[in-house]
Design goal:
The chain contains 4 helices and 11 strands; from the N terminus they run βαβββββααβββββα.
């Protein structure tokens, strides 16, 4: 897998480049992993509902063709865009999503943080009261609020075209989290969003990106 660190790049040209790469790739085109961060932007998934964008203010809202609802991208967040030929790799979309999530979980573990999956809600979550504890989630304490006591630290959104993936995963490292209050993150009203910094992990964007890249390359 070819890993490319793009630095800080605008969202829309990167989105266009992912689509162009996917359209033009051949059966033997090597898989790539693009790592970057974006200036502030809200992105809306195919299933996104306009009423989940509460107060965007001056931050642009861009409609995309990935799955999922609205989320925020900004400085201090690692964006990982795997461009993978699933047919050649020999696994299905569901397994691909699992590998993405597992890579984030292993990245968090590198920093001592325990990441959790929540059934039916793609992405990775941490316990707000004990992000470093190893106890497994046993199911929501309150079925009407499955995210009670949890914060989302990583969002996923993918597109598969001609058996090839683009879009990917976001890992919050050290960012201004206020824009998440302007939306219902991933379509969930009141869902708290956190980053490594707010739960007590001191690291750099470069280090987090490097660890995540290693985990993704090993699994994909």
């Amino acid at each position: 897998m070819i890993v490319r660190k793009l630095g800080t790049v605008d969202y829309l040209p990167t989105y266009d480049a992912m689509q162009a790469f996917t359209v033009s790739r051949q059966d033997d085109t090597p898989n790539e992993l693009w790592l970057c961060e974006h200036p502030p932007v809200f992105t809306q998934g195919l299933a996104g509902q306009a009423d989940h964008v509460l107060m965007p203010g001056s931050i642009p809202v861009i409609q995309t063709n990935r799955g999922g609802q609205v989320t925020f991208h900004g400085p201090g967040q690692v964006m990982a865009y795997p461009l993978v030929n699933l047919q050649r790799a020999g696994y299905y979309v569901k397994e691909y999503v699992y590998k993405l999530e597992e890579s984030v979980i292993r990245t968090l573990a590198h920093f001592g943080v325990t990441g959790h999956r929540v059934a039916g809600a793609p992405g990775i979550y941490v316990r707000l009261d004990d992000p470093f504890g190893h106890a497994a989630l046993t199911g929501p304490a309150n079925p009407t609020d499955p995210f009670r006591g949890l914060g989302k630290i990583s969002a996923l959104g993918i597109k598969v075209s001609r058996h090839c993936t683009y879009h990917g995963a976001a890992l919050n490292v050290a960012m201004d989290l206020e824009p998440f209050d302007r939306i219902n993150p991933c379509g969930y009203a009141g869902l708290k969003t956190v980053d490594l910094s707010t739960i007590g992990v001191e690291t750099t964007w470069d280090e987090a990106a490097q660890v995540l890249a290693q985990q993704l390359a090993a699994r994909l």
